[in-house]
Amino acid sequence: xxxxxxxxxxxxxxxxxxxxxxxxxxxxxxxxxxxxxxxxxxxxxxxxxxxxxxxxxxxxxxxxxxxxxxxxxxxxxxxxxxxxxxxxxxxxxxxxxxxxxxxxxxxxxxxxxxxxxxxxxxxxxxxxxxxxxxxxxxxxxxxxxxxxxxxxxxxxxxxxxxxxxxxxxxxxxxxxxxxxxxxxxxxxxxxxxxxxxxxxxxxxxx
Length: 206
What we know:
InterPro entries: Sortase (IPR005754), Sortase_dom-sf (IPR023365), Sortase_F (IPR042001), TAT_signal (IPR006311). By secondary structure, this protein is mainly beta.
């Protein structure tokens, strides 16, 4: 199945992502009215995309500009209907949300990672906020294809105003979303989320 189920996609689209931080609100909570259909909900125009790839689960993610080279684990929905985040471990890894399209398929493929992992220190996405438009992100797929994306936008947003429509909403080309925490520390984590938007620009078999 190439597209997420309506239930899983709806749950994700209405749940604020708090990767590596505090507890999630329950899915189904109302999204802020300002995010739906607002100009701010549309990522900056990016490079022309290429033909969508066949469905294949992502197994590794590389972001050369910030030194990321991580295996990818699969993330689903937590019992309360919110999006899972990777476990807090010494050997931190990013995770692909399995109810989003696989990287290279039409739609927004979503990858989450921690900025910090408690007593273990920095997380795999500790430098995500340093990415700039034009930086490259490569997803290695289980079938051996490497899907290369180019960053089109990066935002830091308050968790109370997470732009669910921009992150999870339908798009007509293969895109990628990378998400972590950011902004000032609070009593239970971080105040903001960092979101990177990228579009597929090439693919190859190494």
